[in-house]
Structures are given as C-alpha cells and as structure tokens.
C-alpha cells in the first residue's frame, strides 16, 4: 500500500498532466488546429510571423498572462507553447 506522501505525489502528477493537456488543447484551438499534436510545428500549422503575433494576443486574452516577443519567437511546436503558457501561469500565481 502506498504511503500518503506517495499518493499525494501521484495525484499532483496526474493533475499536472491534465492541466498541460487542457492547455495544449486550448492552444491548439487558438491556432485552428484542434486535432493537432504537441509535436506539430507552428510553421507546419501555417503560423507565420503575423500569425504568431495574433497567437500571442489570443493567448494573453485566453490565459491572462503576458507574453514577450522574444519568448514567443522561441516557440516551435504546440507543446512548447503549452508548456510555456503553463510556466507563465504558475509564475503569475
């Protein structure tokens, strides 16, 4: 039988995975690619430089975070965007 500490750690991990998946799904919808995977590149999904600016604005509105231009330019995949948004949300809290 698992200890209380192990049970809490497992629960925290599950919640973290659910949150990331939820964030990933929300980001995918913002780029009109609801069925995309975390590994899909933004360029492959048709996000160019103007699209990136639009995505930043949508993310700031959807998640209530501020995203700098330099940070956004480092995004390559949907997964990297979702992870970064999660980090920004945690830093904000």
Topology:
Elements: H1 4-30, H2 49-63, H3 69-73, H4 78-92
What would your notes on this structure say?
Helices cover 67% and strands 0% of the residues. The longest helix has 27 residues, at 4-30. With 93 residues, it is mainly alpha-helical. It is elongated, with a radius of gyration of 15 Å. It has a single domain (4-92), classed as ACP-like (Non-ribosomal Peptide Synthetase Peptidyl Carrier Protein, Chain A), CATH 1.10.1200. It contains four helices and no strands. Helix 1 packs across helix 4 (78-92).
Could you name the key traits of this structure?
single chain; 93 residues; mainly alpha; Non-ribosomal Peptide Synthetase Peptidyl Carrier Protein, Chain A; 0% strand
Low-confidence stretches: none
CATH architecture: Orthogonal Bundle
Average pLDDT metric: 87
How many domain units?
Answer: 1
């Amino acid at each position: 039988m698992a200890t209380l500490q192990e049970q809490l750690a497992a629960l925290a991990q599950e919640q973290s995975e659910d949150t990331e998946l939820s964030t990933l799904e929300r980001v995918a919808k913002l780029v009109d690619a609801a069925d995309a995977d975390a590994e899909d590149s933004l360029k492959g999904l048709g996000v160019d430089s103007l699209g990136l600016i639009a995505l930043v604005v949508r993310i700031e509105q959807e998640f209530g975070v501020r995203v700098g231009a330099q940070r956004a330019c480092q995004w390559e995949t949907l997964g990297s965007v979702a992870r970064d948004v999660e980090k920004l949300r945690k830093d904000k809290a």
